[in-house]
From TrEMBL:
<feature type="transmembrane region" description="Helical">
    <location>
        <begin position="442"/>
        <end position="462"/>
    </location>
</feature>
<feature type="transmembrane region" description="Helical">
    <location>
        <begin position="707"/>
        <end position="730"/>
    </location>
</feature>
<keyword id="KW-0812">Transmembrane</keyword>
<feature type="transmembrane region" description="Helical">
    <location>
        <begin position="175"/>
        <end position="196"/>
    </location>
</feature>
<keyword id="KW-1133">Transmembrane helix</keyword>
<feature type="transmembrane region" description="Helical">
    <location>
        <begin position="653"/>
        <end position="673"/>
    </location>
</feature>
<feature type="transmembrane region" description="Helical">
    <location>
        <begin position="621"/>
        <end position="641"/>
    </location>
</feature>
<dbReference type="GO" id="GO:0035673">
    <property type="term" value="F:oligopeptide transmembrane transporter activity"/>
</dbReference>
<feature type="transmembrane region" description="Helical">
    <location>
        <begin position="551"/>
        <end position="569"/>
    </location>
</feature>
<feature type="transmembrane region" description="Helical">
    <location>
        <begin position="679"/>
        <end position="695"/>
    </location>
</feature>
<feature type="region of interest" description="Disordered">
    <location>
        <begin position="1"/>
        <end position="28"/>
    </location>
</feature>
<feature type="transmembrane region" description="Helical">
    <location>
        <begin position="143"/>
        <end position="163"/>
    </location>
</feature>
<feature type="transmembrane region" description="Helical">
    <location>
        <begin position="469"/>
        <end position="491"/>
    </location>
</feature>
<feature type="transmembrane region" description="Helical">
    <location>
        <begin position="208"/>
        <end position="227"/>
    </location>
</feature>
<dbReference type="GO" id="GO:0015031">
    <property type="term" value="P:protein transport"/>
</dbReference>
<protein>
    <submittedName>
        <fullName>OPT superfamily oligopeptide transporter</fullName>
    </submittedName>
</protein>
<dbReference type="GO" id="GO:0016020">
    <property type="term" value="C:membrane"/>
</dbReference>
Length: 758
């Protein structure tokens, strides 16, 4: 009886204990909810407003790390290689599109997350299977896959140049030489990036604004807690919304990609209206007061990501661009009034596409006799201004960094500090990374030297010498020097300064009359520099997500190898199937060779005819001279700021304005508009100020938690639907399915915004 009476008592005690545990859990959950609610209510009152742009790296990105998480797993191998191949193919397709689209890291990130979590759910995890499925898909695996895929998901300049030689010179490299050359030029940049870590990866000021959404999303997907659950739910809602919206402006209703009241009223009747206000089609106009509802276009201006200072300088540059571009064209300053308003092609004296093959010998050198008969080529006025503005920006960027960031340069390079692996840097993310083995500097130096040797060897593998060894070395050293200054601008502002025109003009004077060599100088002088910047950003991503440095190194190497192979393979397929369209200066709505045509135009105009076009007294002598003019542009603003600071007036509006002006960005944007489509910029202005000024100042809690996550969701959803449309209806699979013509989708007679009559 005692036993029988004890049993119910024990059952009641166990039940009470379970109820007690349950109650504790309920109370804890309620506390979490109440705490979150209280935080939400008081958020905007208590959260500190982000004052400095670089504070985003500390206040938005967590330093949390779990060193026990597995990194190199079966999932990493399968998804890393698979998404690298996929991203490389997609990037190649976008290169031959009229829109200036690219493969977002966020696109790769989202696909990797879906597949990685699916593999964890579906694969067995017991016994020997634990090697294939070691646990939940974690942030370090995810980061390694993203770095591999993003490294591969950029169309290599080497492949673009190979395409230009095929399309316009009928020169085809064998597959092995082309792939090895692509890989080598990428690895030269990687070697330089490793040597610049002290200056452009480890410190807090090098925060790479465009990577903040990527890291914010990674941490939201993988870190626990009620807040991150809410952030994940928010992400997928925004992702789904843009996914279902973006196909509308992209396919059945393209008028929504560039809405212009003035264009709708004019309906394509007047060329001036088209040139100034048109923006719906490639090379149509510069898009004054044109608004877009397509995030695929809007995201090119990074309005949710770039610091407000970067955006304001770009908008000031564009405002000047509207005036300068229109004035130069209608004043016939570059003798281009009878040419199209916008085009990157070369034109003859008759206004038709320039017959470049007629002035070149079979070995691609200048034929002076033929030149005297045919005459010199001409640029469109807006393209000439664009080159001039880019060269002004290049000169300004060097002096700007010397003036405003001298202490940082001295700290990184003084006493050869950049060659040491131990540094006195107080960045919290860098401090967390000290537990992992760093990649020695000699690894990067060895990679640089070996890749340089491979690149030189490939240059001698064609039927002609593409570029002599000494010249490759000279331009590689120059690109490494420029990477310091351009990398500083990218790391602190999110913006990349273009140096391609400056490099090509310099090459034209070093190799006069040799268009192929000038084109290859762009590869070793320009491409190497930007590969350095890409690699630096991925190294920073590894630091943010606490990926061990040696695995970051392996991920970038693997992505580069896969990318080089698929870049070349897909390029050959597109060029073979769309040859005539890609050679046409205007292209179509589906395919365009405007990216490749720039290399060809530069190689002929600067390579074969540099002396005839760009020396003093000739038509475009101001274009190269602009590099020297640009050196002086930052000085007045720096002098004004310093003088006022010495007088104790550094808080005056004039001193602040002088410090706020970023001359490299402002100057470049004067010539930024004569390309592709321009319907998005006024939407960028509205969204940029709403995010980086209003939300950051008046809704700081929302800004820190959701601003960059919103950017990630919008980029990811729009990239996914654009990929689907590219293969389903835009002809990437070989079969185009045009949407029926209606008012919102004009036919062949009008451009997408009804501003250009064809």
């Amino acid at each position: 009886m005692a036993v029988e009476s004890t049993v119910p008592q024990l059952e009641r005690e166990v039940t009470d204990e379970k109820r007690s545990v349950s109650d504790v859990e309920d109370i804890k959950q309620r506390d979490d909810v109440e705490k979150a609610a209280v935080e939400s209510v008081s958020d905007e009152q208590s959260v500190t407003i982000i004052q400095k742009a670089e504070d985003v790296a500390v206040q938005v990105i967590s330093t949390e790390d779990d060193p026990t998480l597995p990194v190199f797993t079966f999932r990493v191998v399968v998804l890393g290689i698979g998404l690298s191949a996929f991203g490389s193919v997609l990037a190649t397709i976008y290169t031959f599109k009229p829109q200036n689209a690219s493969v977002s890291q966020l696109f790769c990130l989202i696909i990797a997350y879906v597949l990685g979590t699916a593999m964890h759910s579906l694969l067995p995890s017991h016994g020997v299977w634990s090697y294939l499925n070691p646990g939940p898909f974690n942030i370090k695996e995810h980061s390694m896959i993203v770095i591999m895929a993003s490294t591969a998901s950029t169309m290599a300049v080497a492949t673009e140049i190979i395409a230009a030689m095929d399309l316009f010179y009928d020169i085809r490299l064998n597959a092995a030489a082309a792939i090895f050359q692509t890989f080598a030029t990428q690895m030269i940049g990687y070697g330089v990036a490793g040597l610049l870590r002290t200056l452009l990866v480890y410190p807090t000021y090098a925060f790479y604004p465009s990577y903040i959404p990527v890291v914010s999303l990674l941490q939201s997907l993988h870190f626990g807690g009620l807040l991150n659950h809410k952030k994940r739910r928010y992400f997928w809602i925004v992702f789904a919304a843009i996914f279902f919206w973006e196909w509308i402006p992209q396919y059945p209703f393209p008028l929504l990609t560039a809405i212009s009241i003035i264009c709708l009223a004019d309906n394509g009747r007047h060329a001036f209206v088209r040139n100034l206000f048109g923006a719906g089609s490639s090379n149509e106009g510069i898009g004054l007061l044109s608004f877009s509802t397509s995030w695929t276009l809007i995201t090119q201006g990074s309005p949710l990501v770039w610091p407000l200072q970067t955006q304001v300088n770009s908008y000031l540059g564009m405002a000047l661009g509207y005036i300068v571009l229109t004035s130069v064209y209608y004043s016939n300053i570059f003798n281009g009034r009878d040419l199209p308003f916008m085009s990157t092609s070369l034109f003859g004296s008759d206004g038709e596409t320039y017959n470049q093959t007629a002035i070149l010998t079979p070995d691609s050198r200048l034929n002076m006799t033929a030149l005297q008969s045919i005459g010199l080529p001409r640029y469109t006025a807006t393209y000439a201004v664009s080159q001039l503005a880019y060269n002004l920006s290049l000169g300004a960027s060097i002096v700007h960094i010397f003036l405003w960031n001298w202490k940082d340069l001295k700290s990184a390079f003084g006493k050869f500090n950049f060659m040491r692996n131990v540094h006195d840097i107080d960045d919290p993310h860098y401090i967390e990374m000290k537990k992992y083995k760093e990649v020695p500097q000699w690894w990067y130096l060895s990679l640089f030297l070996v890749s340089l040797g491979v690149g030189i060897g490939c240059s001698y593998s064609a039927k002609i010498v593409l570029m002599p060894a000494w010249s490759i070395i000279v331009f590689t050293i120059l690109s490494a020097f420029l990477a310091v200054f351009l990398g500083f601008i990218t790391a602190t502002t999110g913006f990349s300064i273009s140096i391609k025109y400056g490099i090509q003009i310099l090459a034209a004077f070093i190799h006069p009359g040799e268009p192929i060599t000038v084109m290859y100088a762009n590869l070793y002088g320009n491409s190497n520099c930007f590969q350095t910047l890409y690699m630096l950003q991925d190294l920073k991503l590894g630091q943010y997500t606490k990926l061990p440095p040696r695995w970051t190194f392996a991920a970038q190497m693997g992505g580069s190898i896969v990318g080089a192979i698929f870049n070349y393979t897909m390029m050959r397929s597109i060029v073979s199937n769309n040859r005539l369209v890609l050679q046409d200066p205007l292209g179509t709505r589906i395919w365009s060779g405007w990216v490749i045509q720039q290399y060809n135009s530069a190689s002929v105009a600067m390579g074969a005819l540099g002396k005839e076009l760009f020396t003093f007294g000739n038509p475009y002598w101001l274009v190269p001279f602009a590099m020297f003019m640009g050196l002086f542009m930052p000085i007045p603003f720096w002098v004004v700021h310093k003088l006022l600071k010495r007088k104790g007036l550094e808080e005056s509006w004039l001193a602040k304005a002088a410090a706020y002006i970023n001359t490299p960005i402002l100057l470049l944007y004067i010539g930024y508009l004569p390309y592709s489509v321009n319907g998005q910029w006024w939407s960028c202005v509205v969204i940029g100020f709403a995010s980086q000024w209003w939300a950051r100042k008046y809704r700081p809690g929302w800004f820190k938690k959701y601003n960059y996550l919103t950017s990630a969701a919008l980029d990811g959803g729009s990239q996914v639907i654009l990929f689907i449309l590219s293969f389903a209806v835009f002809g990437a699979s070989g079969n185009e399915v045009p949407f029926p013509t209606w008012w919102g989708n004009p036919g062949e007679g009008l451009s997408a915004d009804r501003c250009k009559s064809t």
